[in-house]
Amino acid sequence: NDTRFLYRCASLWFVFGGGTELTVTGQPTVSPSVQVFAPSQEEIRSPNPYTVVCLLTGFYPPAFNLQWKGGADVISSGVETTKASKQGDKYLASSYLKLTAAQYEKYESFTCEVTHESKKISKTVSKSGSC
After folding, report:
1. Is 86 helix (H, G, I), strand (E, B) or coil?
2. Measured between alpha carbons, how far is 54 from 38 in angstroms, rounded to an integer?
3. Which of 25, 55, 47 shows the shortest CA–CA distance to 125?
4. Boundaries of each Ig-like domain copy (predicted)?
């Protein structure tokens, strides 16, 4: 019955709320591989903002939270994070932290903290470019 289906869908909306995504599959959870890249030397020599990149690959399900830190400080401005994109049966995403020269010089290192299925994964890159 179409009416019964509509009622179930509407009931689920009230249970979970708007904007909540529920994924039900038999596919196992896979944590993302996380890599962080410092700005290139060429970018540092330019007057443009510096970009630190965080790349998440090979994860499932697609929901995640991401936070940037400069040293121990949380950085929320200048952050652009993509939604997860499907790649085969897993997902990938990226986040870009854009910094002025002054912001970049303030910290010795930058950390990308990812929470996926209640597991926290942190990767740090120092200004020298070593991980």
Report:
1. strand
2. 9
3. 55
4. 32-126
Q: Give the list of residues 6+ apart from residue 52 with CB closer than 8 angstroms, or none.
A: 36, 37, 38, 39, 68, 96, 97, 99, 110, 112, 125
| DSSP-derived secondary structure letter, 128 | T
- Please count the other Cβ atoms lying within 10 Å of the Cβ belonging to residue 24: 6
DSSP class of 108: S
The tens place of each residue's pLDDT in the chain, 131 residues long, gives 454 444 444 444 444 555 665 555 678 999 999 999 999 989 888 888 999 999 999 999 999 999 999 999 999 999 999 999 999 999 999 999 999 999 999 999 999 999 999 999 999 999 865 44
Cα separation values, 20 from 8, 17, 92, Å: 16, 6, 20
Do residues 93 and 64 touch, judged by C-beta distance below 8 A? yes
The answer to whether the CB of 53 falls within 8 A of the CB of 15 is no
Tokens of 116: 């996926």
